[in-house]
Input
Amino acid sequence: MKPKIKTLGGRQFWGDVHFFRDWRIQRKVQTQHYRLLDGKDRRYASGTFEDCLSELNKQRKIHDLQPMTGKAVVLLHGIMRSAKSFSPFRRELEKQGYLVFSVDYPSTQITIEQAASDLQQVLKSLEGIEQISLIGHSMGGLVIRAWFQDYKDNRVDKVIMLGTPNQGAEMAEALKNFLPFQWLLGQAGQQLATNAENSPRKLPAPTVPFGVIAGGRGENSNGYNPWLPGDDDGTVTIASAHLQGEADFLRLPCLHMFLMRDARVIEAAVRFLKTGQFTAEVQQ
Output
């Protein structure tokens, strides 16, 4: 067999829409062109979705890949990040016996609602999986909330949000008219503003048990960012991270950009997936 060439990335232009174990089909946002990648980002097919699905079915037979079963966790990164940002999280979840699907989506090129539509396609592809938990960092948590607005899957049992600006991001509100901000973060960046027409506040809360982990320096603290009101993780305030109906809330001394890689966060999230609660010993 001719060796497959590893892709160069382009993670802000391609989005995952279909998974089978480590294999995934992606769609390019500008052209609606599809490609099939293996777990090492090597391309096996390109063209239509049907072309890629056909090749995936061939590879399943070649490699004798068994149907998926058991419990899964779907990971959704924040704006301007990629699935790679969840690497430590993924490794620990796999050690715990979960099938883990770390989703790439072109966060700066599409709206939160469009990302939720792609998430629905991902969930539909997880045939054989009996239980699915969703974990989102920052804007990834808003994508999950937008999914609950328009879709339903009875297999989804728990949600965890890490540093998600559930009430909108004050920084996005301050910068929304700044042209470089608009260019870098696109439509979704505008949606993050606290007073946006389609503000995160208007999205529904998950209808399953959900927990929120936020970064901060503690009670009576000014947080990590002097430009934000109250305690914060440098990007998102504690006040914005809270969401009515949360089953548990945990504040840890961690910056926003490191929440999905912090060992304490990962440990607490695994505990929540198993028990519905974070570790009581470190709650503020």
About this structure: The CA atoms of residues 202 and 246 lie 16 Å apart. Residues 71-282 form a domain with the Rossmann fold fold (CATH 3.40.50.1820). The chain has a mean pLDDT of 93.
